[in-house]
Amino acid sequence: MDNTHELIWSKCLNVIKDNIPQNSFNTWFAPIKPVKLINNVLTIQVPSQFFYEWLEEHYIELLRKTIKKELGVDGRLEYSIVMDSAYNHTQPYTIHAPTLNRKALKNPPVTMPLDLNKDSGKSVPNPFIIPGLKKLNIHPQLIESYNFENFVQGDCNRLARSAGIAVGQNPGKTSFNPLLIYSSSGLGKTHLAHAIGIEVKNNFPDKTVLYVSCEQFTNQFIDAVKNSNQNDFIHFYQMIDVLIVDDIHSLANKPKTQDVFFHIFNQLHQNSKQIIITSDQPPVEMKGIEPRLLSRFKWGLSADLQIPDLETRIAILRKKMYNDGVEMPANVVELIASSIDTNIREMEGAMISILAQSSMNKKEINTDLANSVIQKFVKSTPREITIEHIQNTVGEYFNIPVDKINSSTRKREIVQARQLAMFFSKAYTKHSLAAIGSKLGKKDHATVLHACKTVKNLYDTDRDFKKHFDELENMLKVKM
Ligand code: ADP
Ligand code: MG
Asked: Nearest Cα to 181, choosing from 282, 54, 103?
């Protein structure tokens, strides 16, 4: 296949790269794909209408010079625009943008498949003219009590917290853009994200700050699509100086919302506006998010919140008690902090429950009361897997009575079930080979060892066996 279009485009990229900042290059040029070169017209594919307009608005001179250099004076550039959720297109369409003709640009002729193009012949809307929206009207949606003062410092949050403070004092001006805060649930992402917003507002009252949950963002976008005012939606977000999007992982598998967020992100970033996002996972582990978006998440700083140590957990409880004006004996506070150690929200929940129980039932707050409440919070932790559980699950899976698995019969399918039970017992329990053997058919440790090796071999070589193995393993975990 002829690949001159690729060669030419890569030459163009080399020129462009030398003329603009790396970030801008990554945002606006890296996602472009060359499509074809016919009669000195180079067609490039851009991800959206918005993208095309941005290029034409900001990089027209550079593109013009570059095309002229690589293709000569009669060289031209055409854009093929990938389906664009923000503009209601469901199929790629092409814009014959007369890049080399500056005057015509104000009204670029647009060609699109007829049925898709209600506005045929009209000029492309310019997304940078903001119709009548006033900056002042945007409510930041910040929760006052989620401020830095209430955010207890510890080893678990040192980096995220200090990056947050830096961003709060200098939004958009640090290299922490975007600032991505990640952790599992209940460890303070939302609190910290609000704290940054509040800090910005304290330092720069005129800056437009907005906190939204990713869900809220998604719903707003869906509404905008329904009401055909996606442009307003985009314009609205383009006015924000500090955008906080909480739980960004909810964007997973929502390509249209991802697309619009991508554009908003690019626009804000390009203009040195601050973006703060939170997620339940680091970017490398996020599933269902487009690579181009993930790569942007990695541009700034990703900082995690870890499980706080006991001392920090106690300090968090104390702070909360102080703020709420409540009291509790120190040994009860310590009991809560040492019993619930992986989720601050649950830990606070236990404290509130204890207070409620005590006031409703007129009971003294002591360790007995605390223990009974705490139990409800920690009950859900998984039990250890036992050999019996494994026997039962394997029996159920192969439809073989457990006593057959435990017998010394050498029938092939029973031997295989027994070997699997041995393997899983070795993998999931702390019992010795001898103990496993004695519970599973009165075998010795060498038989169990042999079984483990056989299972491993079969797993690597026999697809059906592997399937059974994986299904069984899932069953074991689910039924724990
Ligand atoms: P996430 O968003 O990670 O699920 P949240 O921000 O909702 O977690 O935090 C859960 C609760 O724990 C909130 O009430 C929050 O105030 C509290 N919390 C978390 N980290 C801290 C901290 N370092 N200091 C004080 N409170 C904290
Ligand atoms: Mg949260």
From this structure: 282
Domain CATH number, residue 250: 3.40.50.300
Indicate whether 402 and 321 sit together in one domain: no
Tell which one of 212, 213, 344, 352 to mutate to probe ligand 1, the residue whose CB is within 8 A of the most ligand atoms.
Answer: 344
Residue 203 lies inside a defined structural domain of this protein = yes
Report the nearest-CA residue for atom 11 of ligand 1. 345
pLDDT tens-digit readout, 93-142: 555 444 433 333 333 333 222 222 233 333 333 333 333 334 446 789 99
d(CA 172, CA 63) in angstroms, rounded, equals: 28
Q: How far is the CA of 247 from the centre of ligand 2 (A)?
A: 6
Last residue of a domain, one of 272, 304, 336: 304
The residue range of the domain holding 59 is: 4-107
Task: Pull the structure tokens for residue 472.
Answer: 């069984």
Q: What are the Cα distances from residue 14, in Å, to 27, 42, 64, 243? A: 15, 16, 14, 33
pLDDT tens for 212-225 read 999 999 999 999 99
